[in-house]
Amino acid sequence: MKFGIVVFPGSNCDRDMQDALQHDMNKEVLMLWHKDKDLSMFSTDDCIVLPGGFSYGDYLRCGAIARFSPMMQSVIDFANKGGKVLGVCNGFQILCESHLLPGVLLPNAQQKFVCKNSFIINDQQGKALKIPVAHGDGRYFAGEQVLNELEANNQVLFKYCDENGKIDPLYNVNGAIRNIAGIKNSGGNVFGMMPHPERASNDQLGNKDGLEVFRFLGLN
Question: What single string gives the DSSP state of each residue in 83-100?
Answer without folding.
Answer: -EEEEETHHHHHHHHTTS
